[in-house]
Amino acid sequence: AKQRGRNNVQFYTADLQARMSRLMELENALRTAIDRHELALHYQPQWALVGQRLTGFEVLLRWQHPVLGQVSPAEFIPVAESSGQIGQIGEWVLQQGVAQLARWRAQGFTSITLAINLSAAQFRRTDLATQVADLLLHHQVPPERLEMELTEGTAMEDPMQARQQLTSLHRLGVRLAIDDFGTGFSSLAQLRHFPVDTLKIDRSFVQDIDVDQGSADMVRSIIQMAHNLGISTLAEGVETARQLSLLERLECEAIQGYLWGRPLTCADAQKLLINQSKA
Ligand code: C2E
Ligand code: CA
Ligand code: CA
Ligand code: CA
């Protein structure tokens, strides 16, 4: 037993070392990612269920490194958060996203909304609203064409601060969405004080609604609660027609998911816009 215990410690240490060196490798490589043009924005379609209409896209960051290959944002965003690089990266995403939205608007696609993810560190910055206002003005984009997503977890870290920040963004006229809703512990009472437009129901509930009554009940009550507060709902990660028809029955307003569209390159998103305008 003693021998095994020692081996376990060795395994654990080796594993920990591997993970540490991966983190340091990512942190170092991230430093030059923007300058070396390794980051790109992808665009996942968002659809209104009524009329099956394309309403816009969520911006999803992609990182293609020459040696490390494609690194998932689920892996590198937390690294950027803890190393302090997220400020620069988040700003870059906002700039690139709004600039692309302006180009699409110039091509006549003026009714779409672009949703951009905000990290916790970005959301804490006191100059965020000013930064966003300057950007919109510079690109002549009406504020209601931009939606900012923050996760339920970020919003609940410091609900008082969140309320202030959301209020200044809301005053600008940008749309606000709570991302990954259902995974945190926010109460109805807290949500009532947030000027949010959309609740994005987390994929973990959506993926089980057609097989698990508990998930279906959860989604039903989130939608009802949102509607009572005058908030609209979007279901994330919709992959099957059955999930879709259940969501329709529950009067969910919008969806996003592989069923109707994976994240697209900029060129493919543009093709979709052109096709939709002909339909
Ligand atoms: P998220 O904001 O919840 O984004 C949705 C994730 O679900 C995306 O993963 C998307 O590709 C994936 N997805 C969408 N539909 C489906 C589906 O039908 N099935 C499945 N299995 N997955 C689906 P992705 O692109 O890997 O991003 C992961 C997370 O990384 C995002 O989760 C978000 O938290 C973060 N992230 C991505 N881009 C940014 C960014 O620009 N800024 C910040 N702060 N975070 C970002
Ligand atoms: Ca999101
Ligand atoms: Ca989400
Ligand atoms: Ca998520």
TrEMBL record:
Localization in the cell: Cell inner membrane
GO molecular function, one term: kinase activity
Keywords of this entry: c-di-GMP, Kinase, Membrane, Transferase, Transmembrane, Transmembrane helix
Annotated ranges, domain EAL: 23-277
UniProt-listed GO biological process terms: cellular response to nitric oxide
Lineage top rank: taxon: Bacteria
Cellular component terms per the entry's GO annotation: plasma membrane
Keyword Transferase: yes
Protein name: cyclic-guanylate-specific phosphodiesterase
